[in-house]
Amino acid sequence: MIELLSLPGGRPAYRVKSSAERLEGIRAVLLTLMLVVAAIGVPMQFVGVASASDAATIDADPNTVSSTSTHTVRAEVEDEDEGQSLQDIDVDYNSAQIPASVENVDESDVSKVGIDNNGDGAIDIDLSGTITNIEYNNDFHTITFIFDESYELNQSDAVVIAYQDVTNPDEPGEYQTQVSINHDKTDHPAKATLNIVEDDSTPETTIDSASVDPSTVAPGETVSNQIVQFSVSNVSGDGVSDTHYVTFPDALAGRLSPNSATVVSGPASIVSSIELVDGPDGDGEMDTLTFATNDDSGSVSDLVLEVDTTVEYPDASSGTQYGIDIRVDDSDSTDAFSDDAAVVTVEDNTPPEISSFSLTNPSDTTLQVSFDSNESLSDIQVEISGDTNHALNEEDFTSTYDSGTYTYTATYDPGATGSYTATLEVAADDAGNDGADGDDEETDSVTIEDGSTTTTDSTDDGSTSSDDSTSTTSTDTASSSDDTSTSSTDDGSTSTDDGSTSSGDGTATPSDGTSTPDGDTSTETATTTAPTTTDPGVNQLVIGFGTAEAPAPSSVDDGAGSSGPLPVLLAILLLLLLSAVAVRKREG
After folding, report:
1. What is the CATH number of the domain that holds 77?
2. pTM for this structure?
3. In this model, does residue 136 exceed pLDDT 90?
4. Which of 294, 295, 316, 405 is most buried, with most CB under 10 Å away?
């Protein structure tokens, strides 16, 4: 360095300074600069000296205000930690004005932990399972992860740990966080910056839950107040209507009658009354209840909504399920869907109603069992007891349906007469409900006789009757003579009190060899003819002599099944005539 000198006479002169003088000048300049910088507050960083703020980083995902987030921390090993065991890593959020909270973090929330030894950000040595404890300080704003000291630190290492369930600060900003490895042995923790921003995205609308009451119904039941309630999160409060849909299965289309829609909780109000429409699927079936709400709060909100409707359920089998779909069309968010959000199940707990149980004998030795039921049956058992025992089941029965009544009929031929009783043992529907309760109305009896049938049921007075029986009464005929009398027999022959007989063909033979009172021998022939008649209640008698046949006299039926007095009188007159002829012969 050259120094300017002034010689006598004003002439300039120059001198070269020594090295020592030059170094002293440099020091003075630097000292002056440092004093100036210190006075204005600008920090100095000298080449070759590492800044503590470069030794750690912290990231949040998501990094929006008030979010539940996963924080990933990376801390480099300092020279002073070389060769030491990894004892802990401490993350202190407390220095920030609005610190994050680690109150909900536990060991299960640690998603990864290990060593990055080459600076690429990936874990090269996995330390999962080496954390033995977690400590919390400063009202859950500081968290310390304790290790089992099985790993020895190297200067090129960086400890990496990620943990969930951290609650981010509720205001945006850059928050200073202190990170320490083996924090009890360090006096200068590394500094890391946590960056939190506003959430400008619109939260997604979701259907969280749904219920239906009643959730079980009987086959064919009509529910006057079927309640479907559902909760919706993040419904926009922009003052524009949001539309809600509750869709029942197509099997219930035309069976719905909406009653009302209600906001159970939340700031919204009903702006469009409930009505029955085709629904979002556009299949032409009137199966959907729809209504609209409006919320002008200016922020998203959670709602609990409810619909009330009348449902006429069909006569479905037990176990049938009807799933109810829910959809919300939000004016400022994505639409929310939930298929089969609530389910109604058909449960048949009511036994069938049985009536008109009967056992009859329609013809010959055939038995017929018949009864009515108010619903279809899948299991039938009827026991027939008596002179012959037999069991009938559902395969033996045929059924007909008319106006809500099922009539079941079965026949059985025991092949023999006798008394029989039928008892309904089982009459069960598809759900296993048995309508056979064993009372008198489910038992009936019948008696099959030769040519007659007697039926006794639960309402019978115990008497028996025969609709085809026949009673026959014979009539005896006597003459006025003291030595001769005749009587009618079943085979048409007659007998006299003197021992003679008259055959059924009308020829009478005396037993004494044709002797008569006057000594003459003569033959008297009586002919009895029973003409054919179609009236079983009329007895007809024809009496003749010789070969002449008298015409058949008429008779009067008195309705009691026997002949009237006219045939008897005619017989007496003929006998008197016969006696008069005999007397006249004697006198002649």
Report:
1. 2.60.40
2. 0.43
3. yes
4. 295
